[in-house]
Amino acid sequence: MWGQRFGSGELQFQAPSVPQYVVFAGDTVRFNRSDLYERMDRELITFTYSHINSILMLKRSDRYFPQIEPILKLYGIPDDLKYLMAIESNLSPKALSTAGAAGLWQFTKTTAKEYGLIVDAEVDERYNIEKETIAACQYLNKAYSKYGDWMTVAASYNAGQGGISKRLADQHQKSALDLLLVEETSRYMFRILVAKMFFEKPEAFGFKVDRFEKYPFYSPKDIVTVSGPIESLVDFAEQHGCSYMQLKEANLWLRGTKLENKSGHTYKVLIPNDK
């Protein structure tokens, strides 16, 4: 057993025991079979000893959860689904997977366009937190209307609805928890359950991040609606009292140095708070 000082107290790193059950999105998931118990135990251990990712996610949580929670509520998605987003991207809005999935919710280009997001050389709305979260809500609602079970919805987010539906039919099951799946998807559902436990009680995993150590969310100083081109984002930033770097960090969806906007789309450009 070993300890590490972090925040205001010293805690010992030791994985929590597998609980009897976890209530997720209103559903009770029990671990009363050996396979369910062991799969849950593995992810509890993984979260406990992945120190860098675990600490950074805790630090980022106060910045990104408050941005997406109202959108989930608006679209009728249980608040617990924010933990799906957390394990998708480690709460990094710049996340880009080896398969080309991007943003907090890790949409591929194909899926992003299917749900109305613009993805081209100068704009990639997978990096627009509000728009990508709305697209994720639409996906999740569509999947829930098909499966009626949030753990199966989560599995479909990882493996695709087509793949999960085929396996449910082939294996004569109703829940993805009872399916033989590829390891990534099989682990995925339990990672979400552990993420809920982790964010609700990080001390149980041996982590303590004080509130003042977390990265805060600052509301933008202004929001500028743009329907035409921006010839230079450097000049645009200067005109609105911020640096080019600050502008791009606040609007990760702007991928170039200008916005030609030949299609005449309307965009909301955030002017960052100087905090």
Structural features, described:
The protein is mainly α and 275 residues long. The chain folds into two domains: 11-213, Lysozyme, CATH 1.10.530; 222-271. Helices cover 46% and strands 9% of the residues. The protein has ten helices and six strands, in the order ββββααααααααβααβ. A two-stranded antiparallel sheet has the order 1-2. Strands 3-4 form a two-stranded antiparallel ribbon. Strand 1 (3-6) and strand 2 form a beta hairpin. Mean pLDDT is 93; it is low at 1-11.
Provide the fold topology.
Blueprint: E1 3-6, E2 9-12, E3 21-24, E4 27-30, H1 34-49, H2 51-74, H3 82-89, H4 109-114, H5 129-147, H6 150-159, H7 161-171, H8 183-200, E5 222-226, H9 233-239, H10 244-250, E6 267-271
Antiparallel strand pairs: 1-2, 3-4, 5-6
